[in-house]
């Protein structure tokens, strides 16, 4: 019954897993805060969702975008920013697609036509195209103006939200491009128009535009350092952490109780079940990481063709997944600056109850705890790998397991 064609687990940044786990706070934030406030004309900041690789940032916002599109909202695809690319060119192309959806190309207003032509130039050649001497606003201003027009069209459509998702934002290395990009989004998010309520009372309202930026934690430092209050005032940043075991167990509970419906071998519907100890083995393998959770589930699925996933299937599948799991955590550690990696290694060498800043700093060879303070702050507030408390603790459990145990060996 269990075949590659009906596998319910999907490790990978560009997929929305069928077996979804956690992130209820971020999903409800869109459903209960961001969208209702923007559609109602109330101001609400954009969202920046950052975290180490494998924590499901892109999948989270892709799910939000899928739900928004199913509700009739206008949604861009996942706009990934490759290293060295022009983010404004990528955004310009997406805005032109949204403009088509909003029916703006059919408008007879000269101003809208000029905005479209200006943005078309950016979409074709990027921000580096020489536009000096040509009439009209700067390219990034034209893009902000066009986004405002799209938002107004959504308002006329009947409270249709406009959702933009820009992914891999840490790859924006050009400070000028980043500044202009944030201005485009910030100006559109802050734009207000006059409206008339039933009864003739006039009021000021924001447009139904929502912006999500996703990427690695480094982006917060780059944007915050260079753009300061402008970025923090117009975007709220969330640093994702690994999931709790309760979230993962809840995601697997349908397997344990009634079984998950899948096509059977006779053209009907069968159910794949999972034993409780198989569920527990998956939780132990993944350490709360969404990517590792999907990887462990996928390999357990492939380990046998029966309709019950057992602990032996999880362990057999994990033997195949082990090299990829180890390489995944190693990449996270290799990305860290030397001092941050040294801090984690010193912290991991201490017993959990001894992991104080003073002891960690001493292990690193520092005369004072304050010498290690900035590093601990970055690992906590920017990267979400540790939690500074009394004592310090690892928030990223897969990193802790890699540094302190024989993981990914589960035996």
CATH class of the largest domain: Alpha Beta
Average pLDDT level: 89
What kind of assembly state do the chains in view correspond to? single chain
Whole-number tally of structural domains: 3
The CATH topology label of the largest domain is Rossmann fold
> If classified by CATH, what would the architecture of the largest domain be?
3-Layer(aba) Sandwich
Q: CATH superfamily of the largest domain, called what?
A: P-loop containing nucleotide triphosphate hydrolases
Q: Please tell me how large the radius of gyration is.
A: 24 Å
Number of helices: 16
Proportion in β-strands:
5-15%
Largest sheet composition: 6 strands, parallel
Overall SS class: alpha/beta
Helix content: 40-55%
Counting DSSP E segments of at least 2 residues, the number of strands comes to: 13
What pattern of helices and strands is seen along the backbone?
HEHEEHHHEHEEEHHEHEEHHEHHHHEEH
Poorly predicted sequence stretches spanning 5 or more consecutive residues: none
